[in-house]
Amino acid sequence: MKTILMASAIALAASTSAFAQAGESPTRVPDPTSVTGSVGVSVEQQRAVRTYWQAERPRATVLPNGVVVSRGAVLPEAVELRTFPAEVGITQYRYVVVGDNLYLVNPSDRRIVQVIE
Question: Signal sequence: where (predicted)?
Answer without folding.
Answer: 1-20
